[in-house]
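thread: overnight batch results

M.L. [08:02]
morning all. the overnight job finished for the chain we discussed friday. pasting input first so we're all looking at the same thing
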Amino acid sequence: MRAVSDFDLRLFTVFRTVVDCGGLSASQSILDMSLSNISTHLANLEKRVGFKVCHRGRSGFRLTPGGTELYSSITELFESIDEFRSKTWLTKKRIGRELSLGIVDGLISEHQFKLQRAIHKLGLIDDDILIRIDVLSPDKLKSSLANGDVDFIVGPTSIASESVVIKEAFHERMTLFCSAQHALADKKTQKDKIFNQDDKFGFVSRGYLRESLQPAFIPNFETAAIVHSMEAAAMLILSGKYIGYLPDHYAKTWEDLNEMVRIMPDVTSHVVPFGLMYRRDHKLPLPAKLLLEYLKPSIAPTENSQNPPAA
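M.L. [08:03]
and the structure it wrote out:
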């Protein structure tokens, strides 16, 4: 016997029922079949497995040694099928209560965007939701969304493709920073030093974000470090050896402690639009729809969304 078909499963069911009932006559009412029909199923089963499974007739019903082993194997098979069905049902139930979200690093200090408050509201509605949050670089956010690994993302809107719905949320201001120990910390002499061709300053580039690349209008900056997270950039800047771009909200803690200084913000600062993004063809699970609803107060009135979340 090779592949097991639906027909085989039917034969297995009839055989197991006959054995459990102790004979063909006793199984008639359960199977809702005639004696001749049951006997035909047993004969077909014996043809399929290639050996006699039971003795049946005037002398009564009894299993052969091969039938005993077959009954045990069939019992294990149906137990496995029941377990598979249960696990599949639980998986379906769990997936419907999952929320997968991708965000850029440093979002926790962005007070324009109330993600924490929205998650709190979601928890009040249903505390049985499984939330997965992946902190990723913008390019990884883009690929994760495209691959369907996350329900929606929060990041710079510049990474969105035409297949993505954008709900613009806030504008993040980026400014060039140095530590209080750096040569550019004195605001009175910053301009002269920056444009002095004899001075060279090590620049930290966040390799994944074009908004933080070395400014072309300042020729004496040299890319001396490449990082892939905001925390790494802040650590290098605080070392006193490097300068680099950070979001104003993220650097505020060190500014307040007089450990970081802005470098010519009127020249180096710029804003980056951020938003919530999800694929137009992606059917959002209920938790994702609810979270988007709770985030509406953080979404700009001029949101660039054309389609509502998929039903």
